[in-house]
């Protein structure tokens, strides 16, 4: 038997580890299973190169709960340690920088970046244990060793009669951590952190149905056998080559990642790079509504198949955090508890690579099956449009596959759109005017008027469309977007020919004065326009600039000077060539004149979806009365 002191001059090292090193006590299990996995994989390597003359076999890691004894066991069949190795790796190296560590981190926040430098992973056990034992037998022909420590610098190291290769860690769970003896708790941690570890992990047993014998009769009762309950998938899809996977394999893995997700993903992107950094993974495009408030944090970050976090901000470009899937990289710099990213040049490189890979995949999907891509457009557009606004590198490539649909269900790329509209929708100043609607039903009458002129109208209904078209206008000379209800169609696309008003200037002045006494001036600006006599007599429009700035402010376009809080303002466009305009002028009775104007205004509001509540109720009653 031997005993001694761990090589550390500060007595309270363990409480400091517990207090400062880890933000989350539960990760002790992840650390210890990671150590067991390393020991097993190292043995595999040594046997493969002939440096370990033992049978590797089919090793597994086992987790056992002894609730009565208040103990938790982590058992592996890896390379094990000799007594000298325990002395070296557990007692010396782990604390070679302890004083430095204490001095540097005693006043800092929790989660300091030291695990990789000081080998403190094993000591995370003391976060939940009042005493820890290591029972280990090396693959070398040497006696087993038994190390014990109660959380003070004191330890004992004695021989043990263990005959099987590998290491068993025994945690004597502290009174304030007894929930780690609950099967449901451990099962949850294993599922969270170790679901895809490369070595099978056993946690108890389960009953498995035996195959029904061919000669079994109708009264046959299913028989069961007890088998190991393996909680992980050691060979997840992202560790395989894309050539070895079929579409169903990707879908099956998606269901494994998200068992409560019942919709199939639209498509996936398999990441696989080994230079200038190592990174593998699979990203899935789920069906997404046109909503920026989509739940993020659905991409899981792993390091050598060990779960780290589902907060991948920094590694994955922000616009792709709305996707789902897995990224695994040993080159991502993490802090001591492997819970948070540290600043590093590789992170930006990885982010740029993912952006490029996604762009290339989208272009490939577009080129290979444009029809299928168009069918999926409404489910993916919010991600791509957000990417164009937030990532310059993505914006550069987006022209090859980002689509602009029309109200008729046709799809154009920007280049195709310019070519298709050039002849008919270029105004007298040489500007190409792209008309669009944000709501096909609400703006139907305006769309209809544009179509009668032979104009194409896009359907752009995402919440960030105002930001997007602002960027497209700034990057494309002589291109402007106008919502179809922003003004009368002849003013939206102004041609050389102009309509002549039937009313004289004096009559127009008189008509405008009458209208302004009835129409609420705090909401509407009256405009008189000479239009085709068949056009609507009253039309409500909302100025493109003000509406767009207001929308951008409301959807996070900071710097819009609070425009999102401005009251709604509209133009009331009155057709001076309409019969209604003449009738209003010729009606002598003030009540009758006001009634005409109010009815026409309500009809115009109704066509824009602006007639609501008490006004709508009053309008309906008034019109029913005319039927009597």
UniProtKB/TrEMBL annotation:
Its keywords, alphabetically, are: ATP-binding, Chaperone, Nucleotide-binding
**What Pfam families has UniProt attached to this entry?**
HATPase_c_3 (PF13589), HSP90 (PF00183)
What family is this? Belongs to the heat shock protein 90 family.
Q: What is this protein called?
A: Molecular chaperone HtpG
Q: Which gene encodes it?
A: htpG
């Amino acid at each position: 038997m031997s005993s001694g002191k761990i090589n550390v001059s500060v007595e309270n090292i363990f409480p400091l580890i517990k207090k400062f090193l880890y933000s989350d006590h539960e990760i002790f299990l992840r650390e210890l299973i990671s150590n067991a996995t390393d020991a097993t994989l190292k043995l595999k390597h040594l046997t493969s190169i002939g440096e370990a003359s033992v049978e590797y076999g089919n090793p597994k890691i086992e987790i056992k709960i002894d609730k009565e004894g208040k103990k938790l066991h982590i058992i592996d069949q890896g390379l094990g340690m000799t007594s000298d190795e325990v002395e070296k790796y557990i007692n010396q190296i782990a604390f070679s920088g302890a004083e430095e560590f204490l001095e540097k981190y005693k006043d800092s926040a929790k989660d300091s970046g030291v695990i990789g430098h000081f080998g403190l992973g094993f000591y995370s056990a003391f976060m939940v244990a009042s005493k820890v034992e290591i029972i280990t037998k090396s693959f070398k022909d040497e006696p087993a060793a038994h190390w014990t420590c109660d959380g003070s610098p004191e330890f004992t190291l004695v021989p043990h009669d263990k005959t099987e290769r590998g290491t068993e860690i025994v945690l004597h769970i502290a009174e304030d951590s007894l929930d780690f003896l609950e099967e449901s708790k451990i099962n949850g941690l294993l599922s969270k952190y170790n679901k895809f570890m490369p070595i099978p992990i056993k946690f108890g047993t389960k009953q498995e149905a035996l195959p029904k014998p061919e000669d079994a009769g109708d009264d046959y009762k299913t028989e069961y056998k007890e088998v190991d309950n393996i909680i992980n998938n050691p060979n997840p899809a992202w560790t395989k080559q894309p050539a070895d996977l079929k579409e169903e394999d990707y879908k099956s893995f998606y269901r494994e990642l998200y068992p409560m997700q019942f919709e199939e993903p639209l498509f996936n992107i398999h990441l696989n790079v080994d230079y200038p950094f190592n990174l593998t993974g699979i990203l899935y495009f789920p069906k997404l509504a046109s909503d920026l408030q989509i739940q993020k944090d659905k991409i899981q970050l792993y390091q050598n198949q060990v779960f780290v976090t589902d907060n991948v901000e920094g590694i994955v470009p922000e616009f792709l955090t709305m996707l789902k899937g897995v990224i695994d990289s040993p080159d991502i710099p993490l802090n001591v508890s492997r819970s948070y990213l540290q600043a590093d040049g590789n992170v930006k490189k990885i982010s740029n690579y993912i952006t490029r890979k996604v762009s290339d995949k989208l272009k490939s999907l577009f080129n290979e099956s444009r029809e299928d891509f168009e069918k999926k457009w409404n489910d993916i557009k919010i991600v791509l449009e957000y990417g164009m606004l937030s990532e310059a590198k993505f914006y550069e490539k987006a022209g090859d596959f980002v689509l602009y649909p029309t109200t008729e269900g046709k799809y154009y790329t920007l280049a195709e759109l310019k070519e298709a509209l050039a002849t008919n929708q270029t105004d007298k100043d040489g500007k190409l005017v792209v008309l669009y609607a944000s709501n096909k039903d609400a703006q139907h009458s305006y769309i209809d008027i544009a179509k009668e002129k032979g104009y194409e109208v896009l359907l752009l209904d995402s919440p960030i469309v105002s930001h997007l078209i602002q960027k497209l206008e700034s990057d494309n000379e002589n291109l402007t977007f106008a919502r179809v209800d922003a003004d009368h169609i002849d003013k939206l696309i102004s041609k050389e020919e102009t309509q002549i008003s039937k009313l004289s200037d004096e009559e127009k002045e008189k008509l405008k004065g009458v209208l302004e006494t009835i129409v609420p001036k705090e909401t509407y600006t009256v405009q008189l326009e000479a239009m085709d006599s068949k056009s609507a007599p009253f039309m409500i429009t909302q100025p493109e600039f003000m509406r767009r700035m207001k929308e951008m402010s409301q959807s996070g376009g900071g710097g819009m000077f609070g425009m999102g809080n401005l009251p709604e303002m509209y133009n009331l466009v009155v057709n001076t060539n309409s019969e209604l305009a003449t009738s209003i002028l010729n009606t002598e009775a003030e009540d009758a004149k006001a009634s005409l104007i109010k009815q026409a205004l309500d009809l115009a509001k109704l066509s824009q979806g602006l007639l609501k509540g008490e006004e709508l109720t009053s309008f309906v009653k008034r019109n029913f009365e005319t039927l009597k």
